[in-house]
């Protein structure tokens, strides 16, 4: 395939995360409102242009009170910092359909490089003749690197909220 513009099909895509709670369990959540701009040859992502914008107010952990707290100044502060943004800066092939994608993540007013492992899942035509591609990505970031330091000490030792946030992304896109 040639380098093509791809539109993300949000109804068949997901951006999810997990973080340790009380050092004994994981809380999972997702973001429902996001956009991405992808210009790529799916068979060779090394020349791709990839950017993603996540509306942080769309956070969903299946708990209304927790979601409201995450939107507050204690965490995302969506009034001042409504989006998380990612822009790829380097893409290295790491095997058949496997890539290491490094890019700038901007969150809470801080921009830092982060790296994600990306898998090209394949391509095909849907029943209506539209060309589709699929990608999966995993990575992690530290909340403290972005000034997201809200926490509470536990009387048994440790903290209420882990610093590492694991990220999982599933993208289905169609030619623009």
UniProtKB/TrEMBL annotation:
Q: Which Pfam family is one of those matched by this entry?
A: YceI
Against InterPro entries, the record matches this protein to: Lipid/polyisoprenoid-bd_YceI (IPR007372), TTHA0802/YceI-like_sf (IPR036761)
Where does the Lipid/polyisoprenoid-binding YceI-like domain start and stop, copy by copy?
5-174
* Family classification: Belongs to the UPF0312 family.
Q: What is this protein called?
A: YceI family protein
Organism, by scientific name, is: Cohnella thailandensis
